[in-house]
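Sample intake sheet
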Amino acid sequence: MRDIRVAKPYARALYDAAVEQNALADIVADVDRLRELIEASEELTQLIHSPVLAPQFKSETFQQLFTDAMHPLMINFFRLLTLKQRERYLTAIMDLFSVIVDEAAGKLVAQVTTAVPLTSEQAERLTEQLSAYSGKQVRLETTTDAQIQGGFIVQLDDTVFDASVATQLQRLRQQLAKG
């Protein structure tokens, strides 16, 4: 919860600055690329989250690594985060930034959990159905969880559609127990 409270104003500031500088597409691409790099690199994750490393060192290292690969606004944004000692919230900030971008574009993000990965045809069909239901363009974020045994669980805004086999079996057990 604290992450969201701290991250929200920074995410909004990054979005507003990107729009003001007409660099939103570049910043969105930088955020996506940075998110992938953080997930793939334990060293980068340690650089960002280490309480031992000095903020100045983190800022300089980030600048050396990404000056040629990222928009100057993104470099300056990370410098601001390190100056305010908020760099450990970078992932939460990027997540909220993506939500703000989607909301501004009239898009919704649907969190989809399945027992096995969706095929591209299934994902496309589900996207179409959720878009028709919500009246907005929907983007899927999918995860797999074998514990649901089959079916799917979709969270779209505040609505959850639970069509998992595990939930259906649980409901059946409850009905049988009631008699």
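Comment: The longest strand covers residues 107-114. The longest helix spans residues 2-20.
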